[in-house]
Write a structure and sequence with these properties.
- The protein has 101 residues and is an all-alpha fold.
- Helix content is 62%, strand content 0%.
- Helix 1 runs antiparallel to helix 2.
- The N and C termini lie far apart (37 Å).
């Protein structure tokens, strides 16, 4: 039986969009990361998609700014990222641990 995930914290629509677009970009960067196994075509496709996702991320932040949401509430947004598996997803962007073999 899979444990039930904690509920997402209350977010504005713009904050939710920011989180979703941020994770889209992170996922694509993880697929591009040359420190992980994969083929160049997969990385190329992810890089091509990254342009559109980065634009959507910019638009989400622009909307927040235009609505007067001038501050990111980091603890709340970090909780949302954790609920949405953000720790695992962002780990793909970093270098893997050293292998002494």
């Amino acid at each position: 039986m899979v444990p039930e995930l904690p509920p997402l914290p209350a977010l504005t629509r713009a904050e939710a969009e920011l989180i979703d677009r941020y994770l889209d970009v992170v996922d694509l960067l993880g697929r591009i990361n040359p420190a992980h196994h994969g083929d160049t075509y997969r990385g190329l496709r992810a890089a091509q998609a990254l342009v559109a996702r980065a634009t959507e991320l910019r638009d989400a932040l622009t909307l927040m700014h235009q609505r007067g949401e001038s501050e990111l509430h980091a603890p709340t947004l970090a909780r949302a990222l954790r609920v949405l598996d953000g720790e695992r997803r962002t780990a793909r962007v970093t270098l893997p641990p050293r292998s002494d073999s």
